[in-house]
Amino acid sequence: MSDERQQQTGAGIVQLATFFLEGELFGVKTLHVQEILTYQEITPVPLAPDYVRGLINLRGQIVTVIDLRCRLGFEKIDDRQTSMNVIVNFEEGLMSLLVDNIGNVLDIPEDSLLPPPGTIRGITVHDIQAVCQLDDELLIVLDLQSILHLN
């Protein structure tokens, strides 16, 4: 959205790329999303944490794959060939977030984003940037800095 349009509406708009895990709606800011890919062959990494599924080759660039189901405490699924990859460009370079399904890109007014509650189905407050009540579901906006902190 252009700065001009934001000034006209008087409210800031946050654009979020959304996806699903266990039927729950999650989102990340689109400014971090580079692309969406269907399942890619993953090369496992020995001794990596459970949520690091492995590595993929993205046009010659090696990208770490984070299984968001596992990272957020949902049940781990071994056969992830129906999963989608959300490729994000963040401080440490490109990372792939393995998700169940892709949603839409949503324009959310900044004042609709609320502080996260203490926990949501086992997800810690540190992994959530905000929540937003949509018409029929709750949108959980993830904090990529917390999610992608691999130490």
TrEMBL record:
Signal peptide: none annotated. This is Chemotaxis protein CheW. It holds the Pfam family CheW. GO terms for biological process: chemotaxis; signal transduction. It comes from the Bacteria. Residues 13-151 form the CheW-like domain. GO terms for cellular component: cytosol.
